[in-house]
Design a protein that fits this description.
2 copies of one chain form a homodimer.
Chain A lengths: L1 E5 H11 L14 E7 L2 E7 L3 E8 L1 E2 L2 E2 L1 E5 L1 E6 H9 L5 E6 L4 E6 L2 E6 L17 E5 H11 L14 E7 L2 E7 L3 E8 L8 E7 H10 L6 E6 L3 E6 L2 E6 L18 E6 H17 L4 E6 L5 E8 L3 E8 L2 E4 L3 E5 H9 L5 E6 L6 E5 L5 E5 L7
Antiparallel strand pairs in A: 1-7, 1-9, 2-3, 2-8, 3-4, 4-19, 5-6, 9-10, 10-11, 12-17, 13-14, 13-16, 14-15, 15-28, 17-18, 18-19, 20-24, 20-26, 21-22, 21-25, 22-23, 26-27, 27-28
Helix pairs in contact in A: 3-4, 5-6
């Protein structure tokens, strides 16, 4: 293999695939990036067996020649050093040459690097997926759906399936659900796809979806999603992102969503977030994060409060935009509510209560496809 | 105590004094900030017994009333929560009221906070220093002198005196020296002070000087420095910063500075830093950071190289601006040289060598007051 490539293009692709490099792998070949060069361009691949990312750099980008190939071939480069050094090379071009024993020579300006590469034949092959179940959606819709629910997955590896996000596609509607048993977040969006494309019980690691989010284009891009037996492929532009599905059956959460409410409220989102944040600061010192919300008799405000046995007490009156139903005192984990408010872009948020010991539901006032559930603390005071 | 204060002013002073709050103190009163209010203004004090910082907020700032006092007094507030909550209060004014049992009430907008305070009589008094030995210098000169040497102090607490920076004032010249036995950095600047003000063997913790740097005004400010028995006071604007001196006798380092050189070179600083950085990246993988510099026969360039038994080798040719003397091969800790180049603002740097086994000296080409010494590695190859 022998070719010259623009440093900025190479660097961008390295940044993309490097998200799949595990720093703690015990399998040496997986601590590398596979590079293949041929007449069409250069392909970089990295994998930690859980996710695999491939980035392709065509010979010409926007009508400009970015690769000149002298001899096709492939090699596996040691990733950690390669990632760092390419960024810091002095010239705008990088010349890469590999001999039969996988010795790699890299030249840029007056810098020369010799590296011991590995045999590309030993690098795991990417899964070949049947493209039967394929949907296409705008990149920013997928990003936004991931952001809306991924924070609510469980951090507890004892129940692996709950560390993932449940995907359901039915009647051209894509739905995501995440729960850690104390809270649940879900979002549903209409998708432009044939009505016979459908799936249930597909669960993808929340961590992997967050990694995917980082390489999804910001806007004006479509993403293909291929759902196969135990793998899902995300394809956008010149990037392929494979992730394994999580094993196990996702619990049925539909029954815990209340259908009627005893108390309904609408808050301006920013003042609510600020008030909860102040109460959280004190509740954090108690390591409980418990904050209490109490409705006022005139139905025009609520009291937000928290207390710490050592430090003291925070109390404030917060106006509501609308309120109806029964008076209420409820205690909950303020961190959970802050997590919801952080991903809420609407100016107003609707909160429905079903009593002091029962779930509360939060929805952005303008988007009925989004639902967040928080279980209250069962306190006696 | 009862007064109202502008949040931004209070917050700024809290940020200043909070650098003296130890998060791991076993003495409860030291995890607090002492607040005193009287007719002239409000004073905040924090101390971890090693450093103490006091910030004063006058009643009027730039002709604008920032404090309105109803009743003078003082209290110690729990620092960690106080620091966080004041920043997040909703209104631009903060009302603070303390009763006889040190219960603190804080009001801002519709937020009300009750905190358990502590008795200010228990808070340690600031040292009272004789102002006999006082000098005044521009804040930016002090910042720059600290930055030039503080990175070179020892991180090894086994020899406490080497974790500090040595201060010497003599003939109206202030000199700082720092060394960890493998390298040494020093800087000397003329100071406008009476020639009878002088001191020797004053050693101040490098960590404390870095904290001081963070609160020194960026420019156009003078700083008073009061040197007393075992304390040094830095006074600028409305801030007092006290630090203990380190005990012990600082070693005499004057004899290790070479007076003649076998090889002298001048490099453009940026290309040298970039080349060393690339070689460092590989040497880091070996955990030695060893980089080798070899002069070329034509005296117009040097070769910078490093190698890793596992990964490979980085080599590059770096032009020199000037070179004279004997040819040279020398191996050194590249991290030490990067540290020096990071604080070098000059475009060119002079490096004098005294042989492969002897110290090398680095000086910014335009500033003869600065000197950095690095001991080479004694390698046999």
């Amino acid at each position: 293999m022998k070719f010259t490539i623009q440093k900025t293009q190479l660097n961008e692709s390295i940044q993309h695939v490097s998200k799949a490099i595990s720093s703690r792998t015990t399998i040496p070949i997986l601590s590398g990036i596979k590079i293949e060069a041929n007449a069409t361009g250069a392909t970089l691949t990295a994998s930690d067996t859980d996710i695999s990312i491939q980035a392709f750099i065509p010979v010409d980008v926007d009508g400009q020649r970015v690769i000149s190939l002298e001899r096709p071939g492939s090699v596996v480069v040691p990733a950690k050093f390669f990632v760092d050094i390419i960024r810091k090379l002095p010239a705008s071009d990088v010349h890469i040459e590999v001999n039969e024993s996988f010795q790699i020579g890299i030249k840029s300006g007056s810098t020369e690097i010799q590296l011991a590469g590995l045999d590309p034949e030993e690098f795991p092959l990417l899964p070949r997926l049947s493209e039967h179940q394929t949907l296409t959606m705008p990149s920013e819709v997928l990003r936004s759906m991931i952001r809306t629910v991924a924070f609510a997955v469980s951090a507890n590896e004892a129940t692996p399936v709950l560390t993932g996000v449940l995907w359901i596609l039915e009647n051209s509607k894509l739905k995501f659900v995440a729960t850690d048993r104390h809270r649940l977040s879900s979002v549903e969006k209409p998708i432009d796809c044939p009505s016979d494309v459908k799936f249930h019980n597909i669960v993808i690691s929340g961590k992997n979806l967050n990694e995917l989010s980082k390489i999804l284009p910001e806007q004006n891009a479509m993403i293909d999603i291929v759902v196969a037996d135990n793998q899902v492929l995300f394809r956008t532009g010149n990037i392929l992102f494979f992730t394994r599905m999580l094993d196990g059956t996702y619990p049925d959460t539909s029954k815990i969503i209340p259908q009627t409410y005893k108390t309904e409220t609408v808050f301006a989102a920013k003042p609510l977030a600020d008030a909860i944040d102040r109460a959280y600061l004190l509740s954090r010192e108690e390591k409980t994060n418990i904050v209490r919300l109490t409705t006022a008799d005139d139905e025009r405000s609520v009291e937000i409060s928290s207390s710490s046995s050592e430090l003291g007490r925070v109390t404030e009156q917060l106006p509501v935009e609308r309120m109806s139903g029964e008076p209420l005192k409820i205690s909950f984990n303020s961190k959970y509510m802050l997590d919801v408010l952080k991903v809420t872009d609407d100016d107003s948020i609707w909160i429905g209560f079903t009593g002091a010991m029962s779930p509360m539901i939060l929805r952005p006032a303008n988007d009925s496809g989004i639902l967040h559930l928080i279980l209250p603390y069962r306190t006696t005071t």
